[in-house]
């Protein structure tokens, strides 16, 4: 089983406008709402590939109920920890041509009770051989050590962890032994102090972390294969909305890892999934047929 964990989910709201201008009224020609949050996006990509997953999240209010129903309607199983107070956030993207402006809310405060319920749920579900995708920012109230604690719990029970986060929560989680991490080039530079992605990859290697995929956006991904740096480029696409493309990459890569593909094959699949997502409007993901066609 593949589980995705979204601790700070959102409704992703997109407005398409002719141009982005300050101090003016922007009139949207199109609007759409999608389940948002990195873990949800990974589950949606997996669903497009025909791979079942279970989306775990902390959610509250009517927005949380809407998210649960939307995921279930798309055939994605859910386990939500419901918050006593607070409303799940809404993140807003304004898109004009190839430009976009994104505003993310902070999200509701997480109580100690809700945090304990989350850890108890994970402990109840995890089985040896399961893949767990821990992705996204931490909501207010959870300490920066939260991912580190979850990784230790999952690894103790024989599960495998793909971690996609940044900043202090990533730094604290490294010593807990995630099986894969996927920082982008800026996140890797912030952590390692190396502005060159190749130097950052060497820093991870020297620290004993060899399963690292550094995302370079349109310039592909850098990773190690048998201790040698490999740079893969994505296929060429006409970009519509890059939001969620990194999560689609993770979905494709985890699909490959869970189905016994080699690291390079899994990363190649991830690149195709990410490129396909960036070629679509909104936070949208491709089908298996579209992925296979682009993979060629």
Report what the structure shows.
With 296 residues, the chain is of the alpha/beta class. The protein has a domain at 2-181: UDP-N-acetylmuramoyl-L-alanine:D-glutamate ligase (3-Layer(aba) Sandwich), CATH 3.40.1190.20. It is built from 10 helices and 13 strands. It has helices at residues 38-48, 61-73, 112-125, 146-156, 167-173, 185-192, 197-206, 245-258, 263-278, 288-295; strands at 2-6, 10-16, 30-36, 54-59, 77-82, 89-96, 99-103, 131-135, 160-164, 180-181, 213-215, 221-225, 228-232. Helix 4 runs parallel beside helix 5, helix 6 packs across helix 7 and helix 8 (245-258) runs antiparallel to helix 9.
Summarize the structure.
The protein is α/β, with parallel strands linked by helices and 296 residues long. The protein is built from ten helices and 13 strands. It has a domain at 2-181: UDP-N-acetylmuramoyl-L-alanine:D-glutamate ligase.
């Amino acid at each position: 089983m593949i589980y995705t964990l979204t601790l700070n989910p959102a409704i992703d709201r997109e407005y398409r406008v002719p141009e982005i201008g300050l101090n003016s009224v922007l009139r949207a020609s199109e609007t759409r709402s999608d389940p948002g949050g990195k873990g949800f996006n990974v589950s949606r990509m997996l669903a497009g590939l025909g791979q079942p997953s279970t989306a775990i999240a902390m959610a509250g209010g009517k927005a949380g109920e809407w998210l649960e129903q939307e995921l279930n309607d798309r055939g994605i199983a859910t386990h939500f920890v419901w918050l006593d107070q607070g409303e799940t956030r809404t993140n807003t993207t304004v898109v004009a041509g190839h430009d976009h402006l994104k505003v993310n809310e902070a999200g509701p405060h997480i109580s100690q009770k809700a945090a304990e319920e989350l850890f108890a749920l994970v402990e109840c579900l995890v089985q040896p051989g399961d893949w767990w995708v821990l992705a996204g920012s931490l909501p207010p109230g959870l300490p920066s050590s939260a991912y580190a604690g979850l990784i230790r719990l999952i690894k103790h029970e024989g599960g495998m962890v793909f971690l996609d986060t940044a900043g202090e929560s990533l730094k604290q989680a490294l010593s807990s032994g995630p099986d894969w991490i996927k920082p982008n080039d800026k996140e890797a530079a912030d952590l390692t102090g190396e502005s060159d992605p190749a130097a950052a990859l060497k820093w991870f290697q020297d620290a004993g972390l060899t399963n690292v995929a550094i995302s370079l956006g349109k310039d592909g991904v850098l990773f190690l294969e048998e201790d040698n740096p490999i740079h893969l480029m994505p296929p060429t696409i006409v970009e519509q909305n890059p939001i969620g493309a990194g999560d689609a990459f993770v979905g494709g890569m985890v699909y490959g890892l869970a189905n016994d593909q080699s690291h390079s094959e899994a990363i190649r699949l991830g690149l195709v999934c990410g490129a396909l997502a960036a070629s679509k409007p909104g936070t949208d993901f491709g089908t298996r047929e579209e992925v296979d066609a682009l993979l060629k």
